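Bumping my old thread because nobody answered last time. Still need a sequence for this structure:
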């Protein structure tokens, strides 16, 4: 059997299970973060409605940016995600090309 040592080995079932669990935990964490964001900002909007100045928009925007970045990390850049997989394959191809004489 002619096996290329630079070629990635197929993932083991245990590795796939760990990756699936890690991705599920990351997504669950984002859903929790989004739920708390909505609840807290609804409360702030209610409190702000009793005020003459619309101050609740500032925490909503700041926290919303954090939620967006968290989501990008979970949905795009996490191990096993689409962007991560594309970059990993590109790096493997680049390294594999450098090893050839």
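Sorry it took so long. Here it is:
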């Amino acid at each position: 059997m002619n096996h290329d040592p630079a070629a990635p080995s197929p993932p083991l079932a245990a590795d796939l299970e760990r990756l699936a669990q890690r991705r599920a935990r990351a997504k669950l964490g984002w859903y929790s973060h989004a739920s708390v964001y909505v609840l807290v900002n609804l409360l702030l909007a209610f409190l702000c409605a009793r005020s003459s100045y619309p101050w609740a928009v500032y925490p909503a925007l700041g926290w919303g940016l954090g939620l967006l970045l968290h989501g990008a990390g979970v949905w795009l850049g996490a191990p096993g995600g689409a962007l991560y997989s594309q970059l990993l394959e590109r790096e493997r191809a680049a390294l594999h090309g450098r090893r050839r004489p």
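The chain has one domain: 29-99. Let me know if any region looks off to you.
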